[in-house]
Design a protein that fits this description.
mainly alpha, 77% helix, 0% strand
Length: 78
């Protein structure tokens, strides 16, 4: 594994892209759920904010999952 920010190796570039999208997906899911819980707890309409938080979590997680699937399923004859 190289420590370069932008490696020349295409396999390493794909690995870094997958790691980036996996990290972003986890942040979206945790942030959406935690934000929904905190806003619901702080404000009066708990279930409304929880639903919005879950929607953000699902949309962010699915978006990044689709990006990872596109990277993994690329077919390059190296």
């Amino acid at each position: 594994m190289t420590m370069q920010r932008r490696p020349n190796n295409p396999i390493e570039q794909r690995k870094q892209a997958v790691r980036t999208h996996a990290r972003n997906g986890a942040i979206c899911v945790v942030g959406g759920v935690a934000g929904g819980v905190l806003l619901g707890w702080a404000l009066t309409s708990f279930w409304t904010w929880m639903a919005i938080g879950l929607i953000v979590a699902v949309v962010g997680g699915v978006y990044n999952w689709v990006k990872i699937q596109k990277i993994v399923n690329e077919n390059h004859n190296l």
